[in-house]
């Protein structure tokens, strides 16, 4: 392991699906001498790319899970996290971004900034990840890196600065002009491994000089020395420019733009130089944790190997030898044999075998010091857990995790599948916090919940492939919720006198809508309800929210104000007040005009222009609201919000309506009230289901 | 109540009257570049949103985001012109009506009336209420646009949608005998209503060039907000 952290880079590669990030990663690994054969993503030779380690990914040509890999370039250690590109797996992207210091944002030189790039970019902003951009696929017909750089400005608000110019585009793409060194670079050899420096072609010289001037104008903002050199017409060394670009990039004030074609082996090496030159080392980044012993006070972690260890588990994988836990060490050092504490549950674990991953190949190491990414074997934990030395009790700040919006019942086909299914579910829920599972007590079915149809589909497939668990799936169900729309009072007395000690409790107050999930305010004075029974009242109200009284969806957004009540010296008990609260809840709930809420998804369709009208029509037919549409070259982007319940099977409909040429992404935005007519239908369906159950 | 108050403040209401905005087939807002055609068109469309109608705004120059920003700003200007309005109330009204607006951004070369027809058809197919007006901003009237206007006339007939257009005039061009800019004069027979915007000192004057009884109505607008000034 490289001890000088200035020479370490932890980077991610983020992009829209099919922008070529797996190919790029593959090329990077090739040029860094870790692998000697380049496989195509879709596996012409059946081998598949190295980073896509799961069968399913190989088949679909997309990257589902992030794999960490290590390589070395120009005396620097580079850890690469390959992040998933599909929006249904954004939790994985977010988890990866959490452990990165910098990222390469790949954009397609033809399609430019696509909807997913926007999502990924927002996530990068949230975690303040500095990035450089790589405009890939310059060999494709319609390639236009300058347009993409402009889109980075217009659509994502980046201060994008072109650091290179392409030498030829589309099938004439040969190499690049580096605007710092003002040299042309060509890539020769079977795999473009030979980088040949040459003079800038005469017909490009003028453009290159203009582009360099523009670049220097932007970059000089980050270096007084460079500004002075420019004003005084002094010597402008490459080092001077590089330092300024590095400062601007790390401060997220500028995004240097590089270009090439990973598939055609063009200009990957200059990108690697840029990773080393411009992306931050662990020392450039401020990482924080919370101190659980000091009222969750924020503590700044230092990349000091001698301080107590703090590490974050960001990905789990089932390997041949048990659970493989990917970790990023933020402070201290994990040595083989160290005792660590999982700060989530306080359990002690012993760091046994430590490894550094090169996708599916492992390399044993003796320690993983601060600033590095590695993996531990044989440790039972969940994704997102923090491991610390026994002398501290820190936790890395909780990650932003959304509640699932869709559920599906799954039934194993046989006994063996039943056992394997349990194993698979256990693993998946640990890996992915947005994937949940429970057993429906009424039907006995196992229910899986997630963030979208595809999200669940992928897990069902993984169950089959990786765990040999054959399951039958039911119809996907939307996670409806209920809430109230107006204030309503309650005045309920729970009284039972059936021999023995009786039960008595009275609650008075009101419920009203709130933005919070649940609020409880106690305004009882004068001991009308003794203090020891107040928590029981709260519990009673809260318990009532698990299921609405008639439609039985979870209830949210209710504030209960308890104003008054009564008790009996002998017959009152916690149980009696809980029952009174449940009664009070029921009494007020129906008067408070309850409504059903449904998850609304942000749906973005990208379609060839000729199908724009048709696609907008598809949204209209699905109770969708179109927010707008924009033409970009030959493609149109349509942004809309559509209820999740209307989106089932949408991919098939979209495919058949656009000759398979359109694609869409979908992510949860908010819960909104269901229109009356739809609410009636839901109520009817629910009643039928109930009747069927009671038969 | 707030909706009504806001409509009463609208420069569109002042120029041609609320009931009159969708009466006919074509309307045009004419001015030189940069005077405020788009802002005025947005205020016209805003009266419809405030009447719980849908609108379709097509721009050949603004991006989708820009269109949305223009509407946000136009609404804010209307609200500010009232004086004090409960911000929560104003926000919630905007949240509820802005979803009735669809902005589509085309380029001059990809704009095609057929695409609009396809889209409007889908409203009928899904049994949804149709937009009351269609705003088309950025068509170049220095060239003959009769063919597009004829197509739009069919849209008007088929779906009952009033079409509001922007027309850019030029400083050096002389006006016609009726006092119309040449771009309007060339298509005059099709246009039912026309409003001309002209900078006057540090204000903008709105003049109704054509609209039955409202013809020759004149008033001044604040160039920053495009709201009528007292």
Q: Largest inter-chain interface?
A: A-B, 20 and 25 residues
| Individual helix count of chain A | 16
- Across the major sheet of chain A, the strand order is 18-17-23-14-15-22-19-20
Helix/strand order of chain B: HHEHEHHEHEHEHEEE
Model description:
The complex is a heterodimer of chains A (695) and B (230). With 695 residues, chain A is of the alpha+beta class. Chain A has an eight-stranded antiparallel β-sheet. A seven-stranded mixed β-sheet of chain A has the order 2-3-1-4-5-11-6, sandwiched between helices. In chain A, strand 19 and strand 20 (361-365) form a beta hairpin. In chain A, 50% of the residues are buried. In chain B, 41% of the residues are buried. Chain B has eight helices and eight strands, in the order ααβαβααβαβαβαβββ. In chain B, helix 1 (2-9) packs across helix 4, helix 3 (37-49) packs across helix 4 (64-82) and helix 6 (113-125) packs parallel to helix 7 (146-159). Chain B has helices at 2-9, 11-16, 37-49, 64-82, 87-97, 113-125, 146-159, 182-186; strands at residues 26-31, 54-59, 101-105, 131-137, 162-168, 193-200, 203-210, 218-221. Chain B is α/β, with parallel strands linked by helices. Classes of the chains: A alpha+beta (695), B alpha/beta (230). Chain A binds chain B through residues 154, 609, 612-614, 616-618, 620-621, 625-631, 637, 639, 641, and chain B through 63-65, 67-68, 99, 102-107, 110, 114-119, 121-123, 125-126, 128.
In summary, what is this structure?
The complex is a heterodimer of chains A (695) and B (230). Chain A is of the alpha+beta class and 695 residues long. Chain A is 28% helix and 33% strand.
Question: What labels would you give this structure?
Answer:
A: alpha+beta, Rossmann fold, Elongation Factor Tu (Ef-tu), domain 3, Alpha-Beta Plaits, 5 domains, eight-stranded antiparallel sheet, seven-stranded mixed sheet, 28% helix, B: 230 residues, alpha/beta, 8 helices
């Amino acid at each position: 392991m490289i001890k000088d952290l200035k020479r370490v880079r932890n980077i991610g590669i983020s992009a829209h699906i099919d922008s070529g990030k797996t190919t790029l990663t593959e090329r990077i690994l090739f040029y860094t001498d870790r692998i000697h054969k380049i496989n195509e993503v879709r596996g012409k030779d059946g081998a598949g790319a190295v980073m896509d380690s799961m069968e399913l990914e190989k088949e679909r040509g997309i990257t589902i899970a992030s794999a960490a890999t290590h390589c070395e370039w120009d005396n620097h250690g580079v850890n690469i996290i390959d992040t998933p590109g599909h929006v249904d797996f954004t939790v994985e992207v977010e988890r990866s971004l959490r452990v990165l210091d910098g990222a390469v944002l790949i954009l397609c030189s033809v399609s430019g900034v696509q909807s997913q790039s926007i999502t990924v970019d927002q996530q990068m902003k949230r975690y303040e990840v500095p990035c450089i951009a790589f405009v890939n696929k310059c060999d494709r017909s319609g390639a236009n890196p300058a347009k993409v750089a402009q889109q980075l400005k217009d659509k994502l608000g980046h201060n994008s600065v072109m650091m290179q110019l392409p030498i030829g585009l589309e099938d004439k793409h040969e190499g690049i002009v580096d605007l710092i060194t003002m040299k042309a670079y060509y890539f020769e050899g079977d795999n473009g491994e030979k980088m040949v420096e040459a003079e800038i072609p005469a017909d490009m010289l003028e453009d290159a000089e203009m582009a360099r001037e523009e670049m220097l104008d932007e970059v000089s903002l980050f270096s007084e020395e460079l500004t002075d050199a420019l004003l005084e017409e002094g010597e402008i060394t490459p080092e001077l420019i590089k330092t300024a670009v590095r400062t601007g990039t790390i401060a997220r004030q500028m995004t240097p733009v590089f270009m090439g074609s990973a598939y055609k082996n063009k200009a990957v090496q200059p990108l690697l130089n840029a990773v080393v030159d411009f992306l931050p080392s662990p020392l450039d980044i401020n990482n924080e944790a919370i101190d659980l012993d000091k009222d969750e006070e924020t503590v700044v972690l230092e990349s000091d190997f001698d301080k107590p260890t703090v590490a974050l588990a960001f990905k789990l994988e089932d390997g041949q030898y048990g659970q493989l836990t990917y970790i990023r060490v933020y402070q201290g050092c994990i040595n083989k044999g160290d005792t660590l504490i999982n700060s989530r549950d306080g359990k002690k674990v012993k760091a046994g075998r430590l490894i550094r991953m090169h996708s599916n190949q492992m390399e044993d190491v003796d320690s993983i010091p601060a600033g590095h990414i590695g993996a531990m074997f044989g440790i039972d934990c969940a994704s997102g857990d923090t491991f610390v030395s026994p002398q501290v009790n820190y936790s890395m700040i909780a990650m932003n995790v959304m509640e699932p919006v869709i559920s599906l019942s799954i039934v194993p086909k046989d006994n063996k599948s039943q056992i394997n299914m349990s194993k698979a579910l256990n693993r998946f829920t640990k890996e992915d916090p947005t994937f949940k599972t429970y057993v429906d007590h009424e039907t006995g079915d196992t229910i899986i919940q997630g963030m979208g149809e595809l999200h669940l589909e992928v897990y069902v497939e993984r169950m089959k492939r990786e765990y040999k668990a054959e399951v039958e799936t039911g119809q996907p169900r939307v996670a409806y919720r209920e809430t109230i729309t107006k204030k309503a009072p309650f005045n309920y007395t729970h009284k039972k006198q059936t021999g023995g000690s009786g039960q008595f409790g009275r609650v008075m107050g009101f419920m009203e809508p709130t933005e919070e999930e649940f609020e409880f305010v106690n305004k009882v004075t004068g001991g009308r309800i003794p203090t020891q029974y107040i928590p029981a009242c709260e519990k009673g109200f809260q318990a009532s929210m698990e299921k609405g009284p008639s439609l039985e969806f979870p209830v949210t957004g209710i504030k209960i104000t308890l104003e008054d009540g009564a008790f009996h010296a002998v017959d009152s008990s916690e149980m009696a007040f809980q029952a009174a609260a449940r009664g009070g809840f029921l009494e007020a709930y129906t008067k408070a005009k309850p409504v059903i809420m449904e998850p609304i998804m942000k749906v973005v369709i990208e379609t060839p222009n000729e199908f724009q009208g048709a696609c907008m029509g598809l949204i209209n037919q699905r109770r969708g609201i179109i927010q707008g549409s924009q033409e970009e070259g030959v493609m149109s982007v349509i942004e809309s919000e559509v209820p999740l319940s209307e989106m089932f099977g949408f991919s098939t409909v979209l495919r058949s309506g656009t000759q398979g040429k359109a694609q869409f992404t979908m992510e949860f935005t908010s819960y909104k009230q269901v229109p009356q007519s739809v609410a009636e239908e839901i109520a009817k369906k629910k009643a039928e289901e109930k009747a069927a159950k009671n038969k | 109540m707030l909706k009504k108050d806001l409509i009463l403040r609208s420069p569109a209401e002042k120029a041609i009257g609320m009931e009159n905005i969708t009466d006919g087939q074509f309307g045009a807002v004419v001015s030189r570049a940069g005077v405020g055609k788009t802002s005025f068109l947005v205020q016209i469309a805003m009266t419809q949103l405030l009447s719980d109608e849908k609108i379709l705004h097509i721009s050949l120059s603004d991006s989708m985001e820009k269109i949305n920003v223009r509407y946000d700003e136009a609404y804010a200007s209307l609200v500010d012109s009232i004086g004090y309005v409960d911000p929560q109330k104003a926000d919630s009204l905007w949240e509820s009506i802005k979803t009735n607006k669809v902005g589509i951004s085309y380029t001059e070369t990809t704009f095609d009336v057929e695409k609009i027809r396809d889209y409007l058809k889908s409203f009928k197919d899904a049994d949804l209420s149709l937009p009351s007006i269609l705003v088309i901003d950025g068509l170049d009237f220095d060239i003959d646009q009769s063919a597009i206007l004829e197509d739009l006339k069919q849209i008007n007939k088929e779906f009952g949608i009033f079409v509001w257009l922007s027309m850019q005039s030029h400083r050096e061009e002389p006006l016609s005998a009726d006092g119309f800019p040449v771009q309007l004069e060339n298509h005059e027979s099709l246009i039912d209503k026309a409003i001309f915007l002209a900078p006057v000192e540090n204000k903008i004057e709105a003049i109704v060039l054509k609209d039955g009884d409202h013809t020759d109505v004149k008033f001044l607008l604040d160039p920053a907000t495009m709201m009528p000034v007292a």
